[in-house]
Amino acid sequence: MRIVYVCADAGIPVLGGKGASVHVRAVTTALVARGHSVVVACASPGAGNPRPPVDDIVVLAEDHERALVGLLQGWRADAVIERYSLSSGPARRATARLGLPLILEVNAPLVLEAARYRGLTGVERWLALEREVFASADAIGAVSRPLVEYIARTAPGANAAWVPNGVDASRYAEAEPSDLGLPAGAVAIGFVGSMKRWHGTRALVDAVADLGPGSCAHVVLAGDGPEAPAIRRRITRRRLGDRVRWLGQLPHHRIPSLLSALDIGAAPYVAARDFYFSPLKVLEYLAAGLPVVCPALGDLPALVGDGGCAYSPAHADGLTLALQRLVEDPERRRATALASRARAAMWSWDANAAAYERLVTDGAAHAEGSAPAACLFGGEK
User: Fold this and answer.
1) 176 and 134 in one domain?
2) Is there a domain that residue 154 lies in?
3) What is the domain-level CATH number for residue 352?
4) Is the domain of 12 the same as that of 157?
5) Three-point CA angle 47, 48, 54, nearest 5°
6) What is the pLDDT along the chain (381 residues), one digit of tens a residue?
7) Of the candidates 283, 324, 266, 276, which has an alpha carbon nearest to the alpha carbon of residue 297?
């Protein structure tokens, strides 16, 4: 197939380092690996990471709809996959004009997220637009089951399926460990991410400090973000400076080597009733053979399984106790690490791309009035 992948969010540069940028490159790379011709149409190409092996990366003009019509006609596209954004809409109008199926990729309830964390106003109007975007798509892939449920509540009858994120396990199995300069006997607990409030990185610092000054646990932080100043203050306040390595923002191609040098991967998300994430970091921890410590929220227990320890977010000491069990028991760490690699094999980008192939087929049938399929990923519901 000839597929145009649309990312109209200027905050997601295709070659950037944030998780959303990694996702765009991974999905399009997997589609190419399965034999499809792919063009990425984006608001921001970005820089800093290798270009995915797509036919082209096209920067959208300000008039997205007209630009997309021209691109789709000139490239003789068969279908469009669009990463849902607050700018969504022009791609649906362009594909409708040309009779092409539009498959929507939904990674978050963006209106509620923007209202909660970024001061978005006029929420009711935005929610109405979101409802229209969901309802008009020929098929939808959502990265988590809570998001599938959210879409069903927002636009009853929308053709949505669970398509979790993936990981290229081979990149992590073959990586040479970085030299972190840690003392002999140290147990390295790593966090990789953009350090936003809901990532819970301050809680990770507190949990390691609560293990006591004699603990062999060290924290390795890779990333940056709005929480960074507060995290640095917490490190100072808890007198943890000599047990922390702060690496800053790393290009994604360096992450496999970093993870290979760690002993435990931490994803200490803040508790939320509407936890809708399918975190790339968790899948990458698994692929690197790291025991994963995370709260039992959303899809996290299903993703991690016996490849980690999912603690109750309602338990005040849950994170500390989960870390303690792994830090103080090397045999438990080894057994869990073996299980984590097996879990990673379940969540590949190839499976993600295969699901989108089926969504394109299903979406084309849906556009012609045929009944949609009930489940499109791995037979799971």
Assistant:
1) no
2) yes
3) 3.40.50.2000
4) yes
5) 65
6) 999 999 999 999 999 988 899 999 999 999 999 999 999 999 999 998 999 999 999 999 888 899 999 999 999 999 999 999 999 999 999 999 999 999 999 999 999 989 988 889 999 999 999 999 999 999 999 999 999 999 999 999 999 999 999 999 999 988 999 999 999 999 999 999 989 998 999 999 999 999 999 999 999 999 999 999 999 999 999 999 999 999 999 988 899 999 999 999 999 999 988 899 999 999 999 999 999 999 999 999 999 999 999 999 988 899 999 999 999 999 999 999 999 999 999 999 999 999 999 999 987 776 665 333 333 333 332
7) 276
Residue 182, Cα to own-chain centre: how many angstroms?
29
Query: Edge-to-edge, what's the strand order for the sheet holding 160-162?
Result: 56-59, 37-42, 2-7, 79-83, 102-106, 139-142, 160-162
CA distance 38 to 4: 6
Residue at 379 is within a domain: no
| pTM given for the model | 0.87
Sheet holding 292-295, edge to edge: 244-248, 217-223, 187-193, 264-266, 292-295, 308-311
Any idea which residue has 């849950």 for tokens? 318
Chain-centre distance for alpha carbon 256: 16
CB 206 within 8 A of CB 234: yes
Show the DSSP H helices in 137-263 as ranges. Answer: 145-154, 169-173, 201-210, 228-237, 255-260
Q: Report how many domains make up the chain.
A: 2
